[in-house]
Specification:
The chain is α/β, with parallel strands linked by helices. Helix content is 38%, strand content 30%. A six-stranded mixed β-sheet has the order 5-6-7-3-8-9, sandwiched between helices. Strands 11-12-10-13 form a four-stranded antiparallel β-sheet, with helices on one face. A three-stranded antiparallel β-sheet has the order 2-1-4. The structure holds adenosine-5'-triphosphate (ATP) and magnesium ion (MG). Residues 63-64, 181 line the site of magnesium ion.
Length: 332
């Protein structure tokens, strides 16, 4: 049973176009011209309860716009969304009680209030029972180490502290689904790790559904089994991260230790990228040659002591997809 259903979702923004220069400025006053930005185009997907899905795509792809429609902040131009049978923008109050939201770029907390007072306000707004509130607070304080700054006003927090406070705030009322828009942006490695561990824990132990947008592939690797990728508002891929790797991970590496000093160890179809003593590293593309073929060709000519095949890392794969626009023509 799907918990979140998105069907042929579209969002088009109308933006005023401005003419430049003096004459242009006069014309702008007289008549406004508009152009249309298709931020989200015909996106459909379904998410089950308890899933943790990564929503990826280059800058301007339409990720935040999708999240805003899912949270009920924006109304779609066309298409449908239901989150557990609720239409987000139509039943906003009901929806808000069931979801948690973190926008990494800005805080949901009260700027001048100490963290703990923000939490108290949220308890009041969401009507969280006292014992439940205490239980949650204790859990989040432990997992996110909030204690050291819980009396500090939000405006004085460091970025990493603020993000931890925002995450806790988003979860205090036991939401069923949490939308995270770049929750690790600008954080150091330790802070990122703490936040990832926290998300994983809440997803696995409390069964909370998460949708996560990020440009940090560490987040994806650590957290998401399923990824959706969009570009120019269109959904281009939806499946396991491993499948994305298998389909689009291009360049693999083979590291070989030879038994002897060979004059020329080059092999057609594989590029030598490093040579150190008797150790040589080749780079080869999945499309051109299989690993076993390459190893076979080498073994026919040389004596090999040891070898390791390295799969392309996720970062390279995704860069390759963005740069080459590999996926975009498939759906056009
Ligand atoms: N309120 C708005 N009015 C006009 N255009 C908008 C508005 N909000 C977003 N857009 C446009 O819609 C497109 C998608 O923007 P969106 O913020 O969803 O991208 P994103 O995938 O979140 O990108 P990023 O990774 O940079 O955060 C962009 O071209 C953006 O300029
Ligand atoms: Mg965004």
């Amino acid at each position: 049973m799907s918990f979140i259903k998105v069907d042929q979702l579209c969002k088009t923004f109308k933006v005023a176009t401005h003419k430049r220069g003096f004459v242009g400025a006069i014309r702008n006053l007289a008549s406004r011209q508009h152009s249309l930005v298709k931020a989200v185009q015909d996106i459909s997907f379904q998410i089950k309860r308890g899933e943790l899905v990564g929503y990826l795509g280059p800058n301007g792809a339409g990720k935040s716009t999708t999240i805003k429609m899912l949270t009920g902040i924006l109304v779609p131009s066309s298409g449908q969304i239901t989150v557990g049978n609720i239409i987000p923008w139509e039943q906003r109050n009901q929806h808000t009680r069931r979801i948690g939201v973190v926008f990494g770029q800005r805080t949901n907390l009260w700027w001048d209030l100490p963290v703990i007072e923000s939490f108290d306000l949220l308890k009041y707004i969401y009507n969280v029972p006292e014992d439940r509130f205490k239980q949650n607070l204790k859990k989040f304080e432990d997992l996110l180490e909030l204690g050291e700054f819980s009396n500090t006003p939000v405006r004085s927090l460091s970025l990493g502290q603020r993000m931890r406070a925002d995450l806790a705030a988003a979860l205090l009322h036991d939401p069923e689904v949490v939308f995270l828009d770049e929750p690790t942006i600008g954080l150091d490695v330790v802070a990122k790790d703490r936040i990832r561990t926290f998300i994983k824990e809440i997803n696995q132990n409390a069964g909370v559904t998460f949708i996560l947008t990020t440009h940090d592939l560490g987040d994806v690797q650590k957290l998401c089994r399923r990824v959706m990728m969009i570009d120019h508002g269109k959904l281009l891929f939806d499946g396991p991260l491993q499948e994305l790797q298998d389909r689009f991970g291009q360049e693999r590496e083979l590291e070989v230790d030879f038994a002897d000093d060979y004059e020329d160890v080059s092999i057609p179809g594989a590029k030598i990228i490093q040579q150190q003593g008797r150790q040589t590293t080749y780079r080869f593309s999945r499309e051109q040659m299989s690993a076993s073929k390459l190893i076979q060709s080498l073994a026919e000519k040389f004596q090999i002591i040891d070898l390791t095949v390295r799969e392309p890392d996720v970062e390279n794969t995704i860069r390759h997809i963005y740069e080459k626009k590999l996926l975009s023509h498939q759906n056009d």
